[in-house]
Write a structure and sequence with these properties.
Distance between the termini of chain A: 92 Å
Structural class of chain A: mainly alpha
Radius of gyration of chain B: 16 Å
Largest sheet of chain A: 3 strands, mixed
Shape of chain B: elongated
Largest interface: A-B, 12 and 13 residues
Number of strands of chain B: 0
Distance between the termini of chain B: 51 Å
CATH topology of chain B: Helix Hairpins
Helix content of chain A: over 70%
Oligomer: heterodimer
Strand content of chain B: under 5%
Shape of chain A: globular
Largest sheet of chain B: none
């Protein structure tokens, strides 16, 4: 079924390099997906028999995939820069008349960086989960779901056409649902899982419509052929495709107006939040937009919409993150905000695509770091997630504290931590495009400084506020070692990717690149950004340096709104849920009263008539005789009358 | 004699029979009234046959007699059975088969 190194050639793609045949090590590309899929199958089908060794198998498959990903990137680096895209057809998947879609994989520069992020961060989180989920009776299932997620996510980024991407897209949605609701005995977790699933469906409708429109317009769904033809398509079609893809991205990446599910998704175990709802799955929307860049290049309107959505979400997430007292929810707000950054960067066009991906990669590392750090704190505090009950934890959790600080400095963008390079590049690109977008980026960076500092102070500094019976402790090495690796990653990823990995020229064949002259020198811009961030940090220090009350103070209007996630649930309720109820009530009325009424009414009419008529059957033979005589007389009378004229 | 007289007689007999069926309660009498009605029609058939000068009506009259004989056999059997179970030959007595 699986053909080694079958050739996939894009048809008539003048602007794009045709995919080279997958030979040598690339012939085993399918192993990347097959390994975690095998793990998931064994763990989920194997049942209780695999309880003892199952989790280790789960870690092993993902680690092997990570090793293989490193082998692949080394081999890819060995190829000339223009030939770094290989394709592999696994089997003919859909063939209906003249329409064929092969299940084909494509490894190019963009997919490669995603594969590295997913497998390496994924493997670290798997190892961490060994410690975090140690006491959970269902941990075999947990690792099975995690493996399933990794397989689906790899399929998403390796697919060479939209239809196969859709399979991966739904696969990660399923894994996300299963993992958010992993502790399904908690009603809140079960509800959160459903909420995430349903809100993602809204985005998925966008994706499926986009794919249909792409097929109608271009007659194919393969990336290469679609992108080669995108230049000639008419602009309004491209705009519609762009907007529908954006809707899909909004659902998956928790962007406005489909952002409400991400905060509730924190009901899942913390490694899930780190892997799915921070590092990988929620960035799939950014991947989709960047991957579809030839479509967006033809439509300024869709690109502008992308920027606006990005900016709105950037602020929304940052404001929510500033007010939440639950450490994971605060981090979730931050994730929303950072993905807003990426979406905004992707909306800038060729200037921004590279930096969107760059920030995505550094964010994947440092946010996983922060989440796992938060998980370590929660683990040490026996499940307590309220930051108001933390405080002064740096003395008892040294490794967690230090690694968390690495992530903290990375996310607020202090040089030379990784976030500095990626976020600064985005702000730089934003200023190149439009000064207002640039200012928004800088302001959001300032708010980031505020909420992250607030989080760090409330958790690790100040006086201990935990109850007497809590005995916070450092986590085991199986949890701290991934933390240390990710902590180092938070420090070096940015510089390494930029200077050593040369990310801009690496991604250029896929995304294109564009430079515009900037009015102010880069160093001044970096200075300004840093200054704004430091102002945010100082405000947080000034506010939370002194006592943090265990019970949340009432707060001003904005704080209350932000604590309630800016009333996103209420807004959704009013705008979507209520009208749906009205519609369904109306339908019920039409169904029960009008349709059922007609049917049941005619039945009652016949029934009632019958009930009266059967009284004629009195049982007296003579009354029947009278009826017969009467009938006969009537017939005679009629015959007589009819004869008259 | 004109055919009118036969027809008038047949009508009178038929009406008497019909009234008998409707007003009498004794099953035997009702039965006799039915026979009266049958014979009234037989009379009409025969009279018309004579008037038209062919045998069609007379043949029909024979058929009616045969059917009447068969009917009597079945009917009397029913009456006897009903009488055995109910000790009465009233036609209003067996009225269980109703709505």
């Amino acid at each position: 079924m699986i053909g080694n190194g079958a050739v996939v050639l894009s048809e008539g793609a003048p602007s794009l390099e045709p995919l080279a045949a997958a030979t040598g090590v690339f012939a085993y590309l399918w192993l990347l997906i097959a390994l975690p899929l095998l793990g998931a199958a064994v763990l989920l089908v194997g049942g209780r028999r695999t309880n003892r060794w199952g989790p280790y198998l789960g870690v092993l498959t993902v680690s092997l995939a990570a090793v293989f990903a490193i082998v692949l990137v080394v081999s890819l680096l060995g190829l000339p820069a223009d030939d770094r895209a290989v394709g592999q057809t696994l089997f003919e998947w859909v063939f209906v008349g003249g329409f064929t879609v092969p299940a084909a994989l494509q490894l190019d520069q963009l997919s490669m960086v995603f594969v590295l992020l997913i497998t390496i961060v994924g493997a670290l989180i798997h190892v961490y989960s060994l410690g975090y989920m140690e006491d959970d009776p269902d941990r075999r299932k947990f690792f099975g779901f995690l493996n399933l997620f990794i397989a689906a996510m790899l399929l998403l980024v390796l697919a060479d056409n939209y239809l196969l991407l859709y399979v991966g897209w739904e696969g990660v949605g399923l894994a996300s649902y299963l993992l958010i609701g992993f502790w399904q005995f908690k009603p809140s977790a079960a509800a959160a899982a459903k909420k995430a699933f349903i809100m993602n469906r809204v985005g998925d409708v966008g994706l499926s419509l986009a794919i249909m429109l792409i097929f109608i317009t271009f007659g194919t769904v393969t990336f290469d052929s679609v992108f080669a033809a995108a230049g000639e398509a008419n602009e309004s079609t491209l705009t519609w495709i762009g907007l529908l893809l954006l809707l899909a991205a909004c659902g998956k990446s928790a962007q406005f107006p489909l952002q409400a599910w991400l905060l509730d998704a924190m009901e899942g175990p913390t490694p899930v939040s780190a892997l799915i709802h921070a590092a990988t799955m929620v960035t799939a929307g950014v991947y989709l937009i960047v991957r579809s860049n030839p479509i967006y290049d033809g439509t300024a309107f869709a690109l502008t919409t992308v920027v606006i959505i990005g900016i709105i979400t950037m602020f929304l997430g940052a404001i929510i993150g500033s007010a939440k007292d639950d450490i994971k929810k605060s981090l979730a707000g931050s994730t929303m905000s950072q993905i807003g950054y990426m979406v905004m960067a992707a909306g800038l066009g060729p200037i921004g695509y590279v930096f969107a991906i760059f920030h995505l990669l550094t964010h994947g590392v440092f946010k996983a770091n922060l989440f796992l750090g938060a998980g370590s704190v929660i683990h040490g505090m026996h499940g307590e997630q309220e930051m108001r009950r933390y405080g002064a934890l740096r003395s008892v959790m040294v490794i967690t504290w230090i690694t968390f600080m690495c992530g903290y400095l990375a996310i607020i963008g202090i040089p030379p931590f990784s976030g500095f390079f990626s976020k600064d590049d985005i702000i730089h690109a934003a200023f190149e495009q439009n000064i207002i977008i640039g200012i928004c980026g800088v302001l959001a960076a300032g708010i980031t400084g505020f909420y992250m500092t607030r989080m760090v102070i409330m958790t690790f500094f100040g006086k201990p506020r935990w109850p007497d019976d809590a005995h916070p402790h450092e986590s085991k090495p199986v949890m701290t070692i991934p933390l240390i690796i990710l902590g180092i990653g938070s420090v070096v990823t940015g510089a390494a990717l930029l200077y050593w990995g040369n990310i801009e020229s690496w991604l250029e064949p896929v995304t294109g690149i564009e430079e515009k002259p900037l009015a102010i020198p880069t160093i001044v811009l970096e200075g300004i950004t840093l200054l704004i961030v430091l102002i945010g940090v100082s405000i947080a220090i000034a506010r939370y340096r002194r006592e943090v009350p265990v019970l949340a103070p009432k707060g001003n209007l904005l704080t209350v709104a932000a604590r309630n996630s800016l009333y996103d649930d209420a807004i959704n309720e009013a705008l979507v849920v209520k009208p749906t109820y009205v519609l369904s009530d109306g339908s019920i009325f039409v169904d029960e009263r009008i349709i059922d009424g007609t049917v049941e009414g005619s039945a009652r009419l016949v029934g009632g008539l019958g009930a009266r008529l059967r009284r004629l059957q009195s049982g007296f033979a003579r009354s029947y005789a009278l009826l017969m005589v009467g009938g006969a007389v009537m017939v005679l009378v009629i015959l007589y009358l009819a004869r008259l004229p | 004699m004109s055919v009118d007289n036969y027809i008038i007689l047949a009508c009178v007999l038929f009406t008497l029979g019909a009234i008998g069926v409707l007003v009498r309660r004794n099953a035997i009498v009702v039965f006799m009234s039915v026979e009266l009605m049958l014979n009234a029609t037989n009379l009409a058939f025969v009279a018309f046959a004579r008037m038209n000068g062919n045998l069609d009506g007379q043949v029909i009259a024979f058929f009616v007699m045969v059917v009447a004989a068969a009917e009597v056999v079945v009917g009397l059997a029913i009456i006897v059975t009903v009488y055995r179970s109910r000790r009465s030959a009233s036609i209003d007595e067996p009225n269980l088969l109703k709505y």
